[in-house]
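quick one
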Amino acid sequence: MKIGIVGCAGRMGRMLVQEVLATEGVELSGGTERKGSDAVGRDLGELVGAGAAGVLVGTDPHELFRSSDAVIDFTAPAATVQHAALAADCRCVHVIGTTGLTAEQEQELRDAASRTAIIWAPNMSLGVNILLAAVEQVARALDPDYDIEIVEMHHRHKVDAPSGTALGLGRAAAKGRGVALDEVWCKARDGLTGARPRGEIGFATLRGGDVVGDHTVIFAAEGERVELTHKASSRTVFARGAVRAARWGHGKPPGLYSMRDVLGLE
Ligand code: NAD
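structure w/ nicotinamide-adenine-dinucleotide:
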C-alpha cells in the first residue's frame, strides 16, 4: 500500500514520514510542501533524519494523490479542502488531521466524501478517542446540575482555539446530554459575564511552551467534581493513529469516517 504525506515538513508531517518509513507493509509514495518551502527538492528520509528514502519533497498534490492509495494531511484548512477534492477525483483515501475548519469547509469535506473514503478526526490518538466515548457516557448519566467545563493546553505555535479536540469533547458531552453544542457552548469568558447558565458547556484555552496536547473535561456539581483527563506527551500517537486509519480506509466505500470507526468504538 502506497501512502503519501502532504505538508511533509511540518511538525506532524515529519512524524508521519517517520511513521510510514517505519511501518511494515506500507510504502512512502511521496510528500508535498508549499511552493517556496526550504524542504522542496530534499530527500524525504533525510528530511526526518532517517537516511535517504529515494523520494523527494514535491509541490504537486495532484500527482501525489494520483500515485498513492492513501494520503495523510495535517496541513491547514484551505489546503485540506483543496486536497479533499483531489482525493475524490483520484478515488484516493484521504486521512485528515487538520483542525480549525469553518462550517463551510466541513461541508466541502462531506461533499468530497461522497466520492471517496475520508477519515477525519481532530485527534488521532487511541486515548483521546476512548476519552470521547467516556465523556459521552458520563454526560448521559449526570444531569445538568453537573456543570461541564473543558480545559485544554497546547504549545505556543498552535493557531486555532479552542482546539479541535476540545470542541470534539464538547460535542461528545452535548450528544450525551441530548443537546446541540452550538446552542449551549461558551467558548471564552471575559469581564462581567453574569452567573453561569445551567446547562452551559464552557471552554478554557491555555497556550505555552512545547505542550503536545492536554485536555480535561470537568463535571462540577455542588459537593463533588468528576474530571476526565488525557495528556499527549509525544506526537507519535497521532502519527501512529493516522497510519492505522490510512490502512483501515484502504478498500472502504466512499464516506466520511472518524477514528471511532477505525478503532471500532462506534
Ligand atoms: P505545522 O505548521 O508545523 O505544519 C503544517 C505544514 O503544512 C507546514 O509545513 C506547511 O508548510 C504545510 N502546508 C500548508 N499548506 C500547504 C499546502 N497547500 N501544500 C502542502 N503543504 C502545506 O502544523 P502542525 O503542528 O503539524 O499541525 C498541522 C495541523 O494538524 C493543525 O491543524 C493541527 O491542529 C493539526 N493536528 C491534528 C492532530 C490530530 O491528531 N488530528 C494532531 C496534531 C496536530
